[in-house]
Amino acid sequence: MRSALHTRTPLARPGEFRPLRIGPLAIHPPVVLAPMAGVTNPPFRTLCRRFSAERCLYVSEMITARSFADGNPKTLHLASFGREETTRSIQLYGTHPEHLGRAARILAEEWGVHHIDINLGCPVRKVTAQGGGAAIPARPRLMARLVRAVVQNAGAVPVTVKFRKGVDDGLPTFRDAGRIAQEEGCAAVALHARTAAQLYSGEADWQAVAELKQLVTRIPVLGNGDIFEAHDALQRMRESGCDGVVVGRGCLGRPWLFRDLVDVFDGREPQAPPRLGEIVAVILEHAQLLAEFFGERAALLQMRRHACWYTKCFPGSARLHPALQQVSTMDELRGVLGRLDPALPFPPEALRVKRGKASGTQKVTLPHGYLEDRDEDLPTSEDPNEVDGALSGG
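The structure assignment produced for this chain is given below.
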C-alpha cells in the first residue's frame, strides 16, 4: 500500500544513499529508531529488529545517568539489552558532567556498548524545569561541558547528540548545538525539527535540518520528525541533504515500518501492510516479550496503549479500546483481541494518523533565571534519580 502522498516519490537508486557512519558503525539503510521512554525497551527493539532483518540502529529509551551510575536496579534493568542485540545503543539523560561522565565510562568499559546518545531534546516539563533536555542547549557553555564529559569518558565508543530546534521560536538553539557537538568530538548529531514549545504539534521544519547540514560539515546530520511512511524518509533526505533519519512516533503500533524502510532504500516497493489477524499476532508477541522482561502485570499495563496504537483506524476497533485499556492478563488480552475480524485489511488512513502524545503546544518551563546568564556553565541542580513518562527522547 502506497499513500497518494507518495505516488510520485521515486524509490532509492543504487548508490544514491550511502551507509550512515557513526564512528566504526556503518548503518544501512541510514535509519535510527528514536529513543522513546516507556517504548523503546528491549522487547520493542526486538520486534523492530526482526522486521528489518536486523538492519538500522535501535536506541534504548532515555536512561538517567545518575541513577545508572549509582546502580539503581530499575534503571539498570531498563538499560539492559536483549540477547539478540549485537549492536548496543543507549541514550543518556543528565544535567551534571560528573554523572554523565561516570555513566559513559561504565557503559564503555563494563557494558561494552557500541553507541551512546545524549538527550538534549526532551521537552517534558519536569525535565526542562530542572534545566535538562531541551533546556541545555540554551546554555552553550554548559552543553559543551556535558558533551565533553561523555566523549572523554566514552573512549572509542562513538557519542551522538539529539536536540530540538530550540526552546521556542524566539530562542532557536540548534545552530549552536550542532557546532558545539562537532567541536567537542561527537560522531553525529540528530535534530528533531520542532521546538520544545511545539511538543509534537504542527509539522516538523525540515528546512532547519537542511540548514544544520550546511553548518555541520564534518560529521553526519540526521533529521527527525514526521517520518510516518517509508517514502517520507527518501523524500526528506533528498530535500534536506541530511545523512539519515530518526524514526519516532511513526513506528508506534507499526514496528514493520522498519521493514518498509529497508525495502525503499533497497529500491523495492514496500510490502503490503499486514491484515488485522497478522497484527493481532504481533500484539501478542509484543505482550509476551514485555511479560518476560517486566512480568505479566507490568507488561499488560504497557500493552494497553500499544494495543490501541496497533488497532487504530480499523473498523470496529474504537469500540474495543475501552476494553483494551483494562486488560491485566494475557488471557484477557487474547479475549478482547479475539473479537476482531482477522481478515480486515490495513486501513490507508492509519498510515499517517498520529499516535502517542497528543498535539498541542506549551510554554516551556525553565529554572528561575535560567536565561538571564546563558554563558553560565554550571548545572542548575543535581540530576534527579528518576525521570520518566516522556514519550520521546526529544
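Interim note for the steering committee: The mean pLDDT is 94. The first strand starts at residue 20 and ends at 22.
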